[in-house]
Amino acid sequence: MEYEDRRNRGVPVEQADHEGIARALREHPAKKGVVFNIAVTVLEVGGGIGLFHLAKGISGNDVAAYLAGSIAPLLGALVVWVRSRKFSGASAAMFAFVALSAVVALVVGRTDPKVLLYKDCAITALVGLVFGLSCVLMPRPVVFYFAQRYGTDGTREGMSAFDKMWVAYPAFRHGMYQISIIWTVIYLLQTGATALIIASTTFSTAYNWNQILPITAFVVAIGLTVIIARHGQRIGRQEAADAAGDQGNSSK
């Protein structure tokens, strides 16, 4: 909040802020959290598929199996919170998704289980639109909060560096908006592909693809995100160097 207040008052970001951001990124880089993030993703996706088929085998009920599979994403969000002590926007979105899934399952899922998967398609499309609309309707685009989780080691200090970068670097903010548009397009394409699979296969097969395709889309989006992020980092380093030079000149 200190950084936001300073920016709103038009007070320039001090060199100490640049140094603090650089230090936090060095001490809490994304590569330190790779194993953790992979483990959480395996828990959320692999655990979801495993719980689904386990519940399906025990109960023989598609709706019950679907709800059982929803437990894994909640566990993943809980693990992230335990590590960072920070309830991120990504975790909030995940909890909202699972809550909506439960409501739909109880209301209409018993009539046609495939409605649950089509609901996921609709939500994926909605998520894509949220990525795009958040650029104009929210102070920070939703993709920023996912970047906080996967762009650092997942600790509180690492995630806080992103808050500071948002305020300090215009190029960083611009990159977040570019990435948001990319994610919007990818998720809308994923929605179309998933809907076709649901319509042409069994519920169990479609459920598996419904867990795999989001990760595929995520990996593609991340790859494009990394390209944009590296470009932004180069610009950010140049901005920091320019700011240091300006402050050095003004102190003479």
Topology:
Layout: H1 2-8, H2 15-27, H3 34-59, H4 62-69, H5 71-84, H6 89-109, H7 114-137, H8 142-150, H9 156-168, H10 170-200, H11 203-250
What does this structure look like?
The radius of gyration is 21 Å and the shape is elongated. The protein has helices at 2-8, 15-27, 34-59, 62-69, 71-84, 89-109, 114-137, 142-150, 156-168, 170-200, 203-250. It has 252 residues and is mostly helical. Helix content is 85%, strand content 0%. The relative contact order is 0.12.
Please give a handful of descriptors for the protein shown.
single chain, 252 residues, mainly alpha, 0% strand, elongated
**In angstroms, what separates the terminal alpha carbons?**
31 Å
Helix content range: over 70%
Average the pLDDT over all residues and give the rounded result: 75
In what range is the share of β-strand residues? under 5%
Point out poorly predicted stretches: 1-16
Radius of gyration: 21 Å
| Largest pleated sheet | none
Which shape, going by the Cα principal axes?
Answer: elongated
Order of helical and strand elements: HHHHHHHHHHH
Extended strand count: 0
Structural class: mainly alpha
**Helix count from the secondary structure assignment:** 11
